[in-house]
TrEMBL record:
<feature type="domain" description="L-asparaginase N-terminal">
    <location>
        <begin position="3"/>
        <end position="195"/>
    </location>
</feature>
<dbReference type="InterPro" id="IPR004550">
    <property type="entry name" value="AsnASE_II"/>
</dbReference>
<dbReference type="InterPro" id="IPR036152">
    <property type="entry name" value="Asp/glu_Ase-like_sf"/>
</dbReference>
<dbReference type="GO" id="GO:0006528">
    <property type="term" value="P:asparagine metabolic process"/>
</dbReference>
<keyword id="KW-0378">Hydrolase</keyword>
<dbReference type="InterPro" id="IPR020827">
    <property type="entry name" value="Asparaginase/glutaminase_AS1"/>
</dbReference>
<feature type="active site">
    <location>
        <position position="12"/>
    </location>
</feature>
<dbReference type="InterPro" id="IPR027474">
    <property type="entry name" value="L-asparaginase_N"/>
</dbReference>
<dbReference type="Pfam" id="PF00710">
    <property type="entry name" value="Asparaginase"/>
</dbReference>
<dbReference type="InterPro" id="IPR006034">
    <property type="entry name" value="Asparaginase/glutaminase-like"/>
</dbReference>
<comment type="similarity">
    <text>Belongs to the asparaginase 1 family.</text>
</comment>
<feature type="active site" description="O-isoaspartyl threonine intermediate">
    <location>
        <position position="12"/>
    </location>
</feature>
<dbReference type="Pfam" id="PF17763">
    <property type="entry name" value="Asparaginase_C"/>
</dbReference>
<dbReference type="GO" id="GO:0004067">
    <property type="term" value="F:asparaginase activity"/>
</dbReference>
<dbReference type="InterPro" id="IPR027473">
    <property type="entry name" value="L-asparaginase_C"/>
</dbReference>
<feature type="domain" description="Asparaginase/glutaminase C-terminal">
    <location>
        <begin position="215"/>
        <end position="325"/>
    </location>
</feature>
<dbReference type="InterPro" id="IPR037152">
    <property type="entry name" value="L-asparaginase_N_sf"/>
</dbReference>
Length: 328
């Protein structure tokens, strides 16, 4: 039987509440063994092993944990300990962790992230079926070569395209523009497409040569945005800035001037958008060529931050960073 290794990190899928209908709960309390035991028939899908990597709500995910998780994924496959990996994760930052792993891990074997919107103790908890479907995808040889997959609420998303779009709905994830990678229905998997951009072993990124990631700050643009926030961020050590811009990645004229100044001083500046869907193109309303800025193309601010951290860790300059945003 196919071997699937579960790396548990915490999140609502491992959360517990004082009653079945309590709104408040504690993220990440249940162990990986308890999660596996909570899904009837899981052992018939694959030979399972489990490992507790962390027990955090994913709002507490950080660079160090990402590096550890990525190294662990690579090590499990290099030692041929599993045919596929499932990572149980909080939903808040699943898209960032997923995209990070999609860029840095090296294997063709399936890596599937899952989580839940309702804690494990809730009435109609969604975690058990999500875990069942995630293990089914990780055990499926047709999932190979599709990069990191987020399996949630019967939908399969590419980690590059997925984003959380609701704070509370069980149907909380969408892949704007790109659409779903496939679906999972009680373990029956269908694929609609392959990822459109380079990933896993085809990227220039690996965690083998990274000890820490550089600081990249995200700045949320809005009417009357104070321009001096940019300088504050740089003076606190940011080597890169991602703008969650208005519309097509826009900022005010005053902010654009300061961004151009810091870009001239060697800070990488990426324009993304706060809108939630659609591309951010070069030289639309802002003169990226003249100002020395990078357009995020299809990546939202939080994913732009992940890619920019990796680009800066490799020492890439603005032209190469722009190419990376088009390629990955
Ligand atoms: N705050 C939680 C987390 O990301 C939410 C969830 O898992 O749904 O860990």
């Amino acid at each position: 039987m196919t071997r699937v290794h579960i790396l548990a990190t915490g999140g609502t899928i491992a959360g517990t509440a004082p009653s079945q209908v309590a709104q408040g709960y504690r993220s990440g309390g249940l162990s990986v063994d308890a999660l596996m035991a909570g899904v009837p028939g899981l052992g018939d899908v694959a030979t399972l092993t489990g490992e507790q990597v962390s027990q955090v709500g994913s709002q507490d995910m950080n660079d160090a944990l990402w590096l550890r998780l990525a190294a662990r994924v690579d090590a499990v496959f290099a030692a041929d300990e599993a045919d596929g990996i499932v990572i149980t994760h909080g939903t808040d930052t699943a898209e960032e962790t997923g995209y990070f792993l999609h860029l840095v891990t090296g294997s063709e074997r399936p890596v599937v992230l899952t989580g839940s919107m309702r804690p494990a103790t809730a009435l109609s908890a969604d975690g058990p079926l999500n875990l069942f479907n995630a293990v089914s995808v990780a055990a499926d040889r047709h999932a190979r070569g599709r990069g990191v997959i987020v399996a949630i609420n019967d939908d399969l998303h590419s980690a590059r395209d997925v984003t959380k779009s609701s704070t509370t709905d069980v149907q909380a994830f969408v892949s704007p523009g790109a659409g779903l990678l496939g679906t999972a229905s009680y373990g029956r998997i269908r694929y609609f497409r392959r990822p459109t951009h380079l990933h896993t072993g085809s990227t220039e990124f690996t965690v083998a040569d990274i000890v820490a990631l550089p600081r990249v700050d995200i700045m949320y643009a809005h009417a009357n945005m104070p321009a001096d926030l940019v300088r504050a961020s740089v003076s606190l050590g940011a080597q890169g800035i991602v703008i969650a811009g208005m519309g097509n990645g826009n900022v005010s004229t005053e902010v654009a001037e300061i961004l151009a100044d810091v870009a001239r001083d060697g800070v990488a500046v990426v324009r993304s958008s706060r809108v939630g869907s659609g591309d951010v193109g070069r030289n639309i309303e802002l003169d990226d060529d003249g100002l020395g800025l990078v357009a995020s193309d299809q990546l939202n601010p939080q994913k732009s931050r992940v890619l920019l951290q990796l680009c800066l860790a490799r020492g890439l300059g603005p032209a190469a960073i722009q190419q990376a945003f088009l390629r990955y």
